[in-house]
Design brief:
The complex is a heterodimer of chains A (109) and B (237).
Chain A: H1 2-31, H2 37-44, H3 48-77, H4 81-107
Helix pairs in contact in A: 1-3, 3-4
Chain B: E1 4-12, E2 16-24, H1 31-42, E3 61-64, E4 67-70, H2 76-79, E5 84-88, E6 95-97, E7 100-101, H3 104-112, H4 135-143, H5 151-155, H6 157-161, H7 168-178, H8 186-194, H9 207-211, H10 218-235
The chains are: A mainly alpha (109), B alpha+beta (237).
């Protein structure tokens, strides 16, 4: 299982690297002289490209982060395997829920 | 007056204390010479390990002023701090007495990583012809000079945190066997090195590489194992 988690974490990292650049690049480009909430929502709501981009981003982050936290908890907190897996799964679901909720709200679904 | 060297040595097991000894400071003196002089001249109850005295056997590693070192080839003048040398047993293994640790787990993990050579030929066969210029031979070569001193094992933080982790020496050995074309089961070695507690637990901190007395890079070997295991998974072998 460790090998599969390792692989999954590397794959999600590979997907997220360009995403992070696009994410930050677009923020810097879009802000220009200042930005209001209406302006942001005006561009994002109903924009399927934006919705697809951030849905995939949220899914990758929800897989990537708990695998890393699981490892840190194993090494630094000495948790047992079963507890670790439950904590990591709970965190993953939490990140997925919070992230998708934000995508739905900002994407105007 | 003769110049003296203060040597603080850990005495006892897990519970114990530092005892300071004073011996003459000499022009040419290794840390192992110092320990031997103390045991022979001052306190014969001091326990430590050594064998070859010339950096081949890997028996005499200890923690010298906080860093793991082979003591037979560590000159006092290179490691002394303000006229003091502090000696402890190696980290990450149970202490038996004074400077001696129980290395059972270290050697067990070496086996668990698939470190035993399995040949395919008998004594009636001709020796294998391995091209010294081949990539696999060069990769095996880079990892093969390990003396099993456990300096890397003591230097590694992941070993400290995760008792299941096989450690740098065992994985370095696995990498040399994965690249050994005479070995009967390189896939089996790779599988063991990829299992829980294997190469994927390494954080690439590089302490093993920094402290290895013979200048090997277990970090590089582990990176090789990670890469090779990814290819194996993708190719579905």
């Amino acid at each position: 299982m460790e090998m599969k988690l390792f692989l999954l974490q590397r794959l999600t990292a590979m997907i997220m690297v360009p995403f992070i650049f696009v994410h930050i690049g677009v923020i810097v480009y879009a802000v220009r002289g200042g930005l209001s909430a209406e302006e942001i929502l005006g561009r994002t709501q109903g924009n399927w490209l934006w919705i697809a981009f951030y849905t995939l981003f949220v899914i990758c982050a929800s897989i990537h982060a708990p695998i890393g936290i699981r490892k840190v908890l194993k090494e630094w907190a000495g948790m047992r395997a079963q507890t670790l897996n439950l904590v990591a799964l709970a965190l993953g679901l939490l990140f997925l829920f919070l992230g998708l909720r934000a995508v739905i709200a900002v994407g105007g679904l | 007056m003769e110049k003296m060297l203060a040597v603080k040595i850990w005495r006892g097991e897990e519970d114990g204390e530092y005892v300071t000894y004073h011996i003459p400071s000499r022009e040419n003196q290794t840390v192992l010479d110092v320990v031997t002089e103390i045991q022979r001249q001052v306190d014969p109850t001091l326990a430590y390990r050594f064998s070859c005295r010339v950096g081949v056997c890997g028996s005499c590693a200890m923690t010298v002023n906080g860093k793991p070192r082979w003591t037979c080839r560590s000159h006092v003048k290179n490691v002394v701090e303000n006229g003091v040398i502090q000696l402890e047993p190696l980290r990450n293994m149970p202490r038996i007495k004074d400077l001696v640790v129980d290395m059972t787990e270290f050697f067990d993990k070496w086996k668990n990583a698939g470190g035993e050579f399995i040949g395919t030929r008998t004594r009636q066969d001709r020796p294998a012809l391995v091209d010294p210029a081949s990539k696999a031979r060069k990769q095996a070569d880079a990892a093969i000079e390990c003396i099993n001193c456990a300096v890397c094992y003591a230097a590694c933080d992941v070993v400290e945190w995760d008792k299941d982790y096989l450690g740098p020496a065992a994985l370095n050995r696995a990498w040399s066997l994965v690249n050994d074309e005479r070995h009967a089961d390189p896939k089996g070695v790779l599988k063991k090195a990829m299992a829980d507690g294997g190469c994927n637990s390494c954080h690439t901190q590089g302490s093993c590489m920094k402290h290895c007395p013979v200048g090997l890079s277990p970090t590089g070997s582990i990176a090789g194992l990670k890469k090779r295991s990814l290819f194996e998974l993708f190719s579905g072998k």
